[in-house]
Write a structure and sequence with these properties.
This protein has one domain (17-76). Helices cover 67% and strands 0% of the residues. 0% of the residues are buried. The protein is mostly helical and 82 residues long. It has four helices and no strands.
């Protein structure tokens, strides 16, 4: 099943000439929008991460395994030399 493409919006921004030239040189003139989008995403879109954590927490088998793993670490620390 194909995923539905996400809508895009055109945005006009102003940057210093040196920044613009650097973006074109390093990123490439046809890749600047994607670069800026990917750079900004983790700072402004939080719901993907929250949804991921909710899904992991709802997975009872995974939570049980994670709890067993973390509890096992306590024994490892107690065995370490000081």
């Amino acid at each position: 099943m194909a995923t539905k493409p996400k809508p895009h919006h055109k945005l006009t921004i102003t940057v210093e000439d040196a920044v613009y030239r650097g973006l074109r040189k390093v990123i490439g003139p046809r890749h600047i929008s994607r670069f800026l989008n990917d750079l900004a995403r983790p700072h402004v879109v939080r719901n993907d991460l929250d949804e991921g954590y909710r899904a992991m927490a709802a997975d009872e088998a995974r939570e049980t395994e994670a709890m067993a793993w973390s509890e096992g670490l306590v024994g490892d620390v107690a065995d370490e030399r000081r």
